């Protein structure tokens, strides 16, 4: 079922979400299906449960070819629950981000370039990945939602924050 995505300003987006404690339940399966349906409908690269008003540490992301990020490399379709993120170096890379909770806008956001992340899949099995670049960016963006952080809070240069239709190529270094 396609769910309404909360927009920035809704206080539910600012909560620190609760860990999932029970796996393999019909409630969790239904939540993930709603998240997939909603993300697909809106062509998102990822979605966090708090964005549909669910106070749990659940994110999904992925998509081989995303029309909203046409130049981005493929990221495997992933369910990540109770995630833990560890940067593997001090190196940061900046890139454009958008968010389904901040429609119509883009911002230039620094993220860790090299990242290890782990967590549970929907059946409660632990997994870990070492990633970089766009994959690392997507994970950091989605997991930020679980701590009540939206990407505009990460923007350092507000000359590079604005409406998609107004931002020009020469603002991209
Ligand atoms: Ni987002």
List the helices and strands and how they pair.
Layout: H1 26-41, E1 46-48, E2 58-63, E3 75-87, E4 92-97, E5 105-112, E6 114-120, E7 126-132, H2 133-146, E8 161-163
Antiparallel strand pairs: 1-2, 2-3, 3-6, 4-5, 5-8, 6-7
The structure holds nickel (II) ion.
Nickel (II) ion binds at residues 99-101, 141, 145.
Structure, explained:
With 173 residues, this protein is α+β, with helices and mostly antiparallel strands. The chain has 2 helices and 8 strands, in the order αβββββββαβ. The protein has helices at residues 26-41, 133-146, and strands at 46-48, 58-63, 75-87, 92-97, 105-112, 114-120, 126-132, 161-163. Strand 6 and strand 7 (126-132) form a beta hairpin. The radius of gyration is 15 Å and the shape is globular. Bound molecules: nickel (II) ion. Nickel (II) ion is lined by residues 99-101, 141, 145.
Strand content: 25-35%
Query: What general form does the structure show?
Result: globular
- The level of helicity is 10-25%
Q: Helix/strand/pairing class, anyone?
A: alpha+beta
User: So how many helices?
Assistant: 2
Major β-sheet strand ordering: 1-2-3-6-7
Low-confidence runs of at least 5 consecutive residues: none
- On the 0 to 100 scale, the average pLDDT is 94
Q: Taking Cα atoms only, what radius of gyration do you get, to the nearest Å? A: 15 Å
Question: Main β-sheet, in a few words?
Answer: 5 strands, antiparallel
Number of strands: 8
Brief overview, please?
With 173 residues, the protein is an alpha+beta fold. The protein has helices at 26-41, 133-146; strands at residues 46-48, 58-63, 75-87, 92-97, 105-112, 114-120, 126-132, 161-163.
């Amino acid at each position: 079922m396609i769910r309404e995505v909360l927009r920035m300003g809704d206080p539910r987006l600012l909560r620190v979400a609760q860990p999932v404690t029970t796996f393999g339940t019909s409630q969790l399966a239904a939540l993930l299906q709603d998240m997939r349906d909603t993300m697909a409908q809106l062509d998102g690269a990822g979605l966090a449960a708090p964005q549909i008003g669910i106070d749990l540490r659940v994110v999904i992301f992925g998509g081989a070819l995303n029309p909203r990020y046409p130049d981005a490399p493929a990221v495997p379709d992933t369910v990540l629950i109770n995630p833990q993120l560890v940067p593997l170096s001090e190196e940061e890379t900046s890139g454009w981000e958008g968010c389904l909770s901040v429609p119509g806008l883009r911002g230039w956001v620094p993220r860790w370039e090299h990242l290890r992340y782990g967590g549970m899949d929907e059946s409660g099995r632990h997994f870990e990945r070492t990633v970089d670049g766009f994959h690392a960016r997507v994970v950091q963006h989605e997991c930020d939602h679980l701590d009540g952080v939206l990407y505009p809070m990460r923007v350092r240069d507000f000359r590079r924050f604005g409406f998609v239709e107004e931002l020009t190529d020469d603002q991209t270094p």
